[in-house]
Amino acid sequence: MKRITGLLIFFLCSSIGYLQAQKISKGIAVTKDGHFFQYNDGSPFFWLGDTAWELFHRLTKEEINKYLDNRKSKGFNVIQAVILAEMDGLQAPNKEGEVPFNGLDPSRPNEAYFRFVDWVVNKAAQKGLFIALLPTWGDKVMKAWGKGPVVFNEKNAYQYGLFLAERYAKFANVIWIAGGDRPAYVDTMDTRPIWRAMIKGLRKGNTNKNLITYHPAGESSSTNFWKEENILDFNMLQSGHARKDIPVWEWVLRDRSINPTKPIIDGEPSYEDHPINWKKANGYFNDYDIRKQVYRSVFSGAAGVTYGHHSVWQFYSKEVPNTAFAKMYWYEALNRPAATQMQYLKQLIETRCSNDREPDQRLVLDKQHDASEYIAALKCQKNKLAMFYLPVAKAVQVDLSWFESSTIKIEWFEPSSGKIISKETAQKQNQMSFIPPKGAYKKDWVLLVSY
């Protein structure tokens, strides 16, 4: 009996994996309303990304397999990685002993290096994962900080973009991210012509219509640089690592209101176990800090969100330098609390409030002055469900005058466990106050009110 049960579980998991791979083979697109993503068969796609910047540079094939399996098991469906990595990715060979270019020349790609990238992209597709590829980290276009060297100009940026797009045109699981933690312009330094050329090359060879966005520097958005040009398929912001409770909800609401309408993603919120403002003395962001930002981002209308761990993005190990006080090796960080908890947000959205959700702060009647306690609200299911993210366990007063039913269902969802902790029904009043289940004050909850 145990053997039969085990075989059934195996075949069920294999079938689910096969179906996911089949969906990915058709790619994703932007929904008609411009706010969200969908598979090309029309079913909703919620972006849950993980940050793996140094993936091609610092891991072996065996390690990459381990990493991808772990992220797939946790519900992640997008992996963000950089082809020309930040940490001396042009001159320090990867684990295959290869560098990307011959003679630091983007017009002379090293075939052996890109065969390795091919292998990773294909392996991700087999596992049902999209891979969001940054053609380069920003220091190869605008040094500002980092190792560099700067190797791109308008001509070779276009050629490189075209080379990549033609090479990966057959992979529907590829998404392109220009930028790489840099502003497109600052003061008198304007690198937009170079990024524009690279994106033009990506477009020309983009027979699969893989989506394109731009990853900016901290506490900024792609809309800061490209709002006047319809050059991107969706927008990306980086709320970053400088402080707690950055008002990402305001930025998401701002960006989703810009015309033409496009999905918005926080592609780099604070990383779990990252020192606050890069200073060890400030303490580290923990899972609670991470949940507060990603939930308030999504509840404010983002099409998804990307998680990151400070040891994992850099794949810190005893073989490489420690960047900015990482506390553990990457393989020890794979199962950190927030890494596991992100899937609960994805499951909540997919099962309750998929691509018909609409942020609506008018539902919260309390005055909101403290960013650490800011409540984000949305409604969906044709106004039959409202959800409120409470970053702290205190009473919330809400407006339910728009509910058409006289009886309501009240549920409390625990983001740290993914469980519904309590359920009850009540008579609806136009204004109602709800108190979370008993527990610590610094504990977050999602309130669901429906009929």
Largest sheet: 6 strands, parallel
| Number of continuous helical runs | 12
Briefly note the CATH topology name of the largest domain: TIM Barrel
The first-to-last residue Cα distance is 43 Å
Portion in helices? 25-40%
Structural class comes to alpha/beta
- Mean of pLDDT: 95
* Major sheet: arrangement of strands: 12-9-8-5-4-16
Given as residue ranges, the uncertain stretches (5+ residues, pLDDT < 50) are 5-15
The domain tally reads: 2
Q: What form results from the Cα inertia axes? A: globular
The CATH superfamily of the largest domain bears the name: Glycosidases
Provide the CATH architecture of the largest domain: Alpha-Beta Barrel
What top-tier CATH class of the largest domain fits best? Answer: Alpha Beta
Strand percent estimate: 15-25%
Radius of gyration: 22 Å
Quaternary state of the chains: single chain
Beta-strand segment tally:
24
Task: Based on the model shown, name its key terms.
six-stranded antiparallel sheet, globular, Immunoglobulin-like, 451 residues, alpha/beta, 12 helices, 2 domains
